[in-house]
Amino acid sequence: MNLLSIGASYRTADVAVLERLVIPESSVPELLQRLVAQPYVGEAVVVSTCNRVEVYAAVSGFHGGLGDICNVLSEHSGIPATELAGHLYVHYGEAAVRHSFRVSSGLDSMVVGEAQILGQLRDAYHAATEVDSAGRLLHELMQQTLRVGKRAHAETGIDKAGQSVVTAALDVAAEHLGGDLTGRSALIIGAGAMGSLSVATLTRTGVGPLRITNRSHERADRLAEAYGAVAVPFARLDEVLREVDIVVCATASTEPVLTRERLERVGKDLIVLDLAVPRDVAPDAVGLPGLTVVDIDSLANSRRTNPAAAETAAVEQIVTGEVENFLGWLRGAEIAPTVAALRTRAEEVVSAEMRKLMSRRPEFTEEQRADVSRTLHRVVQQLLHSPTVRVRQLAAEPGGDQYAALLRELFDLDVPLATQADAVPEIGGKA
Q: 196 by DSSP, 3-state: which?
């Protein structure tokens, strides 16, 4: 098995494509099961956020795994595979490991250094664990991915400004409102993770008074209480829209919450920060007089959130070192079946020789037979100990895969291997 990551993000797809690809939380278990049911896919983890949809998989062959995953994503999104391919990036082997670590470190985020991706990766890993779609390879990858992300944020200043998609959107809003949002009234629609981040960010930046609405009023009420905001019933949405300066949309609705008809009734200038995918603002409402919409596409185009080069360079250095560490573990794990097969072969030889000896010396007592057997086994184990320890060490170094192959050749070992016929050393698509 080898690692393959396939996805689409703000870098390769606009929000119209992403909202078709996005995987609702309730649909993730079923999609994971469909993925691991494919012929070339042995393990899978799915990450779905407002600006990326990715599949991390352990596959038995590059081309077969790529085709299997693309077909599942095509069926899910309704986008023909040939059209979808133009929006996907693909990473294989070492490149997949590096991509995973860069994502968790915030280097691949729309807002470089944002920390929310760590929670999103943790949720994705948890979902895969719940349905048992992550095996040994992806368990190790995801655990190391989360650790590397935490290390990057702890040891560098990449996230010292507290940047997020919300702060980037507020920067755009500030430009439309004279540069200062202090005292501007705002409404947050949605009380989930992004809604909570929005409330916290707006409170910190001095926006207010704040009102929160959600289809489940209890969630809105809890969030409002935590930040000193006011929860309003969803039924009053039209009324509140006419009373605020800024609206932040962050729901999980599959249909637009702010329709053209609803926004036409506002009758005043309004800035809407649509951070939801699928979009909360109906596409046909964009362009209405007095309405300014800031969505994922416009944020991606603004690219106003890059940290200092020294900070990103420090994170890249961490990622490079951690990738090599992971590859060392991977090479060591790959030689384990060969070492196990060698020890099994040795045990078989000892057992065969013991049977021959006992057939020639029937006068041996059971105690004598046991003594001879233990002695032979100890001799074989001592002979194998140093070479197998050393070969594990050598296998963990670059080029170490040759040692496993050499052992298999020297001792004629039959070790089941993943299909390598269509594997390639490294594939990196659009990033």
A: helix
Q: Are 40 and 32 in contact (CB under 8 A)?
A: no
Compute the distance between CA of residue 366 and CA of residue 315 in angstroms, rounded to an integer.
64
Q: Is 49 annotated as a binding residue?
A: yes
pLDDT in tens, 267-304: 899 999 999 988 999 999 999 999 999 998 888 776 55
Rg of the Cα trace of the chain?
28
Domain-embedded: residue 138: yes
Beta bridge partners of 258: 281
Q: Is 306 annotated as a binding residue?
A: no
Residue 227 belongs to domain spanning: 165-302
| Judgement on whether residues 173 and 145 belong to the same structural domain of the protein | no
8 Å CB contact between 103 and 122: no
393 among annotated binding-site residues: no
175 within a domain of the structure (yes/no): yes
Q: Which of 155, 182, 217 is the last residue of a domain?
A: 155
**pTM more than 0.70:** yes
Q: Which of the residues 47, 50, 148, 272 is marked catalytic?
A: 50
Instruction: Tell me, yes or no, if 50 is annotated catalytic.
Output: yes
